[in-house]
Amino acid sequence: MISKPTPLAAARCGQLLLLAGALAAVSWPARAQSSAQTSAKTSAKTSAQATAQSVAEEIIKLDAAQQRRAGVQTVAAAAPGPDGGAGGQQLSGTVVAAPEGTAVLSSIVGGVVQQVHVSPLQEVRAGTAVVTLFSQQLVEWQRDYLQLATQATLAQRKLTRDEALFADGVIARSRLEESRAAATQASVMASERRQALRAAGMGQAQLARLLEKQAMSPALTLTAGAAGTLLELPLAPGQRVEAGVPLARIAKSGALWLELQATPQLAAQLRVGDAVQVAGCGAARVQALSPQLSAGNQSVLVRARVERADGCLKLNQYVQATVAAKPAGGVLLPSSALVRRGAASYVFVQRGAGFAAVPVTTTPAGADAMWVQGTLPAGSQVAVRGVAAIKGAWLGLGAEGGK
Q1: Whole-prediction pTM value?
Q2: What is the per-residue DSSP string for 358-398?
């Protein structure tokens, strides 16, 4: 026998049901919101990873058959050698005498030109007679030297006698000291005039003959101090020259420089020490870059020292030279490897069964080569033929032109 619920029990059951419903209504939205947030975070993280991977490297899928039909060929990105590797920029310029390779011939005495023994642009050797002067001042210096040399000899003889007398106790020490001072002073004065005559151009043999025979001569022959080419000799017989005025300029043999003109863009790539190859002959190395532009043609002066001339470079010769300029960290590639997308430049680097579009910056390295900078290590295989087909696949136009 089943008893019927009392009215009080029924009322309590109804209240319990209403409370459970309310609790369910409150907890369900919270659980739904938490689940939605977790799903959104996971989706956002996945999307960010995919976007980062896409920005880092875009892979264009091309299997071996597609590459063969499209005529795709690759080359290895070349690392720069010690002198810049292959390629280079063509510069023009002239051959000039090196600053330290120029010798100036002058006289420390004035006079009149008696004879010119050589002519401009003539090759001379060390000791070759260049010009003979008639100098009255030279005669006066010779006279002074003879007088001072004679006084020095007499003072030395007197010193020798006084030393003997002092040793015998005949004279006092003070007299000996006076003789020593006089002998030293006379010797110094004679030596000073002797050095002046040597500087004027008189040789050791001429000075010895002057002391022996007292034969003074106004003729002074100036000789070349080094072997080289006589660049300037603005003298004529009968011309009067002053003391210290340059009489001739000699370019020493083998001391040559190149003065080349470079654009500001190319000059920014050059460094001191870069190799320079002269077309046809000779090699040089960059020694200096002008910090300012030439007012005439807005170019930068590049000065290079000639290290090997092979006997074919002459002063004032017009030359064409190749400078192996390279930016730091770059690799060398043919110009056909470069593709553009908008304002950006790319190369296609092989990645397994496809290619990656790698963003790069480039600098010209010759007629058909370029220096490339980017995440592109030396040795990477880069497409140089069939690049249009790879770009078409990259842009979604098909993997190859004929497909």
Answers
A1: 0.48
A2: EEEEEEE-SSSEEEEEES--TT-EEEEESHHHHHHHHTTS-
